[in-house]
Amino acid sequence: MKNMEPKSMIVVLTVLLIVGTGADYVRPPPRKTLHFPWSTKASSHPQQVHISLAGDKHMRITWITSDKSSPSIVEYGTSRKSYNSIAEGESTSYRYFLYKSGKIHHTVIGPLEHDTVYFYRCGGNGPEFQFKTPPSHFPVTFAVAGDLGQTGWTKSTIKHIKQCKYDVHVLPGDLSYADYMQHRWDTFGELVQPLASSRPWMVTQGNHEKEEIPILKKGFVSYNSRWKMPFDESGSNSNLYYSFEVAGVHIIMLGSYTDYDEYSDQYNWLKADLSKVDRERTPWLLAVFHVPWYNSNHAHQGEGDDMMASMEPLLYAAGVDVVFAGHVHAYERSRRVYNGKLDACGPNHITIGDGGNREGLAHKYLNPQPEWSVFREASFGHGEFRVMNSTHAFWSWHRNDDDESVRSDQVWITSLVGSGCLAETSRETRNMLIEP
């Protein structure tokens, strides 16, 4: 090393120091928000196409047209350019001060066969799209990424999710980061269309979806208009919370930004939904919401405490296996935990608000690391939850390391169905979920 240039020697010594001390991975700074050119598509052509599950064997197709006279019809079938079925849906639009949305179409199609590729066309015009329905039995794979936004890192995350052979994308809030600038909802829809038009995206709201202006504008107008979820199919009266099932998995999507105390509609709906879960038919039970309850990051510390105090006993009594949350722009995985302590019958909590937003990463963590926290890192990435059978699932987190998807955390998770926990808590569960 004695013949090295001083600058080169510094680099080598720095690398040796990092390797020798096992330093934490340090992410590059956040990338700039993407900018999109004005669309040159015909006014009747479908834009921002995305799909979502809509009850048993049905799919909701959503798209937007500039042409207000475009019909809300979807033609579909299992062969290219050959459609043997047609469905007609509904449409809506909204104003946000000077902004006026296009015509937003929502059309439910089905019944559909499981694990089958369908080809479809929206509004009788424009290009052909295709999607694959989820399987009816294990294995089934969920891609999980929250707090997406519209940056270069978002683009990397979307690219990596596309490489994952997933069946459903679960998004725990903060989609577009439009933050009142309504055209950013349109550019987000175009950005995610290649993925969201080919696999169902199931989302719940985050704080960036609220867009409320006291007295002038109520919250979630844009979100509710554009991203309609199967709330009515699950007995909910609000698009902000609902449930759905895929293969042998029951998933509860909760709202961190709507009332959740024991007198609220959401709380009562949750009790009713959990009381109907059949663990023989759906041995896996997951919950998804935006603000994490178990978070050892300085960012958003304690913001989920009130919701946790209200709803954690319900999830524990029902034997929820895994909880996914976003909000904190970093990744963290917990051991099974309940009431702040390790508990073999509690859920694993996973914070995955690291999709690629423009606000950057949350680098500061509490020290010492809590006993319940297993792995934590401030990097952008996405997760994959592959449920292999009724008792075992494989979770992996993939860091966006220099634009490559690098598996950086992984663990096998055993369902509580085979643990004895459900038998132990069955009486408590029934009392808690059935009592008025």
UniProtKB/TrEMBL annotation:
Key word Iron present: yes
The Calcineurin-like phosphoesterase domain, residue ranges: 141-331
Database matches in Pfam families: Metallophos (PF00149), Metallophos_C (PF14008), Pur_ac_phosph_N (PF16656)
Gene Ontology molecular function, alphabetical: acid phosphatase activity; metal ion binding
CDD domains referenced in this protein's UniProt entry, alphabetically: MPP_PAPs
Gene3D superfamilies in alphabetical order: 3.60.21.10, Purple acid phosphatase-like, N-terminal
EC number: 3.1.3.2
Keywords: Glycoprotein, Hydrolase, Iron, Metal-binding, Signal, Zinc
Catalytic activity annotation: a phosphate monoester + H2O = an alcohol + phosphate
Cofactor(s) needed: Fe cation; Zn(2+)
Signal sequence range: 1-23
Domain Purple acid phosphatase C-terminal stretches: 346-406
Residue ranges annotated for the Purple acid phosphatase N-terminal domain, each copy included: 46-133
Family of the protein in this entry: Belongs to the metallophosphoesterase superfamily. Purple acid phosphatase family.
Official protein name in the record: Purple acid phosphatase
Organism, as annotated: Olea europaea subsp. europaea
